[in-house]
């Protein structure tokens, strides 16, 4: 930390840990779920920066504290804000809207008011941590107004924004009653990063059509005002990744290798183990995947005595109606298939509604002959990259939805359209019966990509680009 604050401040809805206060008043914490934390944690651990975020619990106020070389700065949300800003506007308006309206987005003015208010609180917390001229890197759809609010408070800062989820086509985005305010909020940044080129161009098109601003390629021109000079905002793709070398090493460790063997034994030594790993979210195509698998058993193309599917579905956003409905649907489907094809001592599907630490995940990836990533829409999907990073044995087959950001990068996978159940059945069957020579060829290709383009490269490329953008508002530090 410098004398007047941190030179790098990350602002995200969640801290990388879920906190609680124990009975004796000390802070207890566990790792938070999701791809954002998976990607950013290693970046921050090496950076001597501060991470501003919500603790994961209502009304929890705590002083900043240090975990694994990071300064964590908790932002407090009360119960109503959790309902309106987090469960409501973030996860029942923006999340479905930005994921191709797979579930219908709900538009409520009270939720929007709460979103604005909470974004202001995050902007103030970030402003209080940042040194003069620091870089502040705002993350994801929950905080789209922060760049503008922060620039109003601290014009000296260099502000980046990264959207971890897709940015929708104009025709969908324009349903949002507050579409203009969201665009203006984002345009407070100097650099706006997206997962794919298509997301960045959707954003620029929305700016062109819904504001009076001029755009040129990836750039949006903001004219000078009485208080601020003219500036340019750049919107560009920066596909995110994982700490692939760390994951590769973890999966090579004797403990993880032994645990992988143990998992296969505990599953009854089937010939083929298939695996799905997702937050229990309707964007992930879990139902489509299970339906395809169930039909393969029904058709007799896969033998339930020789094959099993392990589906990890970690609990997520459990107070949002669409997630409750999804859980009911998935659990009914799993129950039906297990009832039909299971035997004593053998389940067709092992359904696990839990989250697991990285060691156990690595062992599961190693134990799986076929990895099923069948999202209907997904910003990137880091599970696909983790599977590849874990397979130093160059065995295993990745089945990957075309609707993930990862599909733009992972050409060695078997691509599927999860809406096409017959096509997906053929792809899963092909993966389950692929000879080891082809597996090796594909996995080598996948590993070259995932091990080269890791999360350190992603953050360095974003931060270098941000640092290189001329910022006319930059004033010299006060002496
Ligand atoms: C996705 C989002 C993240 C979010 C994570 C977990 O990866 O892009 O912003 O943190 O899901 O969801 P949650 O609502 O539990 O934070």
Structural features, described:
With 479 residues, this protein is α/β, with parallel strands linked by helices. The chain contains 16 helices and 18 strands. The strands form 3 sheets. It has a 10-stranded mixed sheet with strand order 5-6-4-1-7-8-9-12-11-10, sandwiched between helices. The chain has a 6-stranded parallel sheet with strand order 15-14-13-16-17-18, with helices on both faces. A two-stranded antiparallel sheet has the order 2-3. Strand 16, helix 13 and strand 17 form a beta-alpha-beta unit. It is globular. The C terminus is likely disordered. The structure holds 6-O-phosphono-alpha-D-glucopyranose (G6P). InterPro entries: Glyco_trans_20 (IPR001830), Trehalose_OtsA (IPR012766). Keywords: Glycosyltransferase, Transferase. Belongs to the glycosyltransferase 20 family. This is Trehalose-6-phosphate synthase.
Widest sheet: strand ordering: 5-6-4-1-7-8-9-12-11-10
Bound molecules: 6-O-phosphono-alpha-D-glucopyranose
What is the CATH fold-level name of the largest domain?
Answer: Rossmann fold
Number of helices: 16
By CATH, the superfamily of the largest domain comes out as: Glycogen Phosphorylase B
Estimate nothing, just give the exact number of structural domains: 2
Report the major sheet: 10 strands, mixed
Termini, distance in Å? Answer: 18 Å
The second-level CATH architecture of the largest domain is 3-Layer(aba) Sandwich
- β-strand number: 18
Mean of residue pLDDT values: 94
């Amino acid at each position: 930390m410098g004398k007047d604050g941190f030179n790098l401040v990350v602002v995200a809805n969640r801290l990388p840990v879920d906190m609680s206060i124990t009975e004796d008043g000390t802070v207890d914490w566990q790792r938070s779920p999701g791809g954002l934390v998976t990607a950013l944690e290693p970046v921050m651990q090496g950076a001597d920066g501060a991470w501003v975020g919500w603790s994961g619990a209502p009304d929890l106020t705590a002083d900043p504290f240090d975990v694994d070389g990071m300064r964590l700065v908790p932002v407090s949300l009360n119960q109503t804000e959790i309902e309106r800003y987090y469960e409501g506007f973030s996860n029942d308006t923006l999340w479905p809207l930005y994921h191709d309206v797979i579930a219908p987005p709900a538009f409520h003015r009270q939720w929007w008011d709460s979103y604005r208010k909470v974004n202001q609180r995050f902007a103030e917390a970030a402003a209080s941590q940042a040194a003069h001229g620091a870089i502040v890197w705002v993350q994801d759809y929950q905080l789209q107004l922060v760049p503008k609010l922060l620039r109003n408070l601290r014009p000296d800062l260099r502000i980046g924004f990264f959207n971890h989820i897709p940015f929708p086509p104009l025709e969908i985005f324009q349903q949002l009653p507050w579409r203009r305010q969201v665009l203006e909020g984002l345009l407070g940044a100097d650099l706006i990063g997206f997962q794919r080129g298509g997301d960045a161009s959707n954003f620029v098109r929305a700016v062109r059509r819904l504001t009076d601003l001029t755009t040129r390629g990836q750039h949006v021109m903001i004219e000078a005002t009485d208080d601020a000079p003219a500036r340019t905002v750049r919107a560009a793709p920066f596909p995110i990744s994982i700490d692939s070398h760390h994951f590769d090493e973890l999966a090579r460790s004797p403990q993880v290798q032994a645990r992988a063997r143990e998992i296969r034994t505990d599953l009854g030594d089937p010939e083929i183990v298939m695996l799905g790993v997702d937050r229990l979210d309707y964007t992930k195509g879990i139902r489509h995947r299970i339906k395809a698998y169930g039909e393969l058993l029904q058709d007799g193309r896969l033998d339930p005595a020789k094959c099993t599917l392990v589906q990890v579905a970690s609990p997520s956003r459990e107070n949002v109606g669409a997630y409750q409905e999804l859980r009911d649907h998935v659990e009914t489907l799993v129950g039906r298939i297990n009832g039909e094809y299971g035997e004593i001592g053998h389940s067709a599907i092992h359904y696990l509604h839990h989250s697991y630490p990285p060691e156990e995940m690595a062992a599961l990836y190693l134990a799986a002959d076929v990895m099923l990533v069948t999202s209907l829409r997904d910003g990137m999907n880091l599970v696909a990259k983790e599977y590849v990073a874990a397979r130093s044995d160059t065995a295993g087959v990745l089945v990957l939805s075309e609707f993930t950001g990862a599909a733009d990068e992972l050409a060695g996978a078997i691509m599927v359209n999860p809406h096409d159940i017959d096509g997906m059945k053929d792809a899963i069957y092909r993966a389950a019966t692929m000879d080891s020579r082809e597996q090796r060829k594909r996995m080598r290709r996948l590993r070259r990509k995932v091990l080269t383009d890791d999360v350190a490269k992603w953050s360095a490329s974003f931060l270098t680009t941000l640092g290189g953008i001329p910022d006319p508002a930059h004033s010299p530090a006060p002496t």
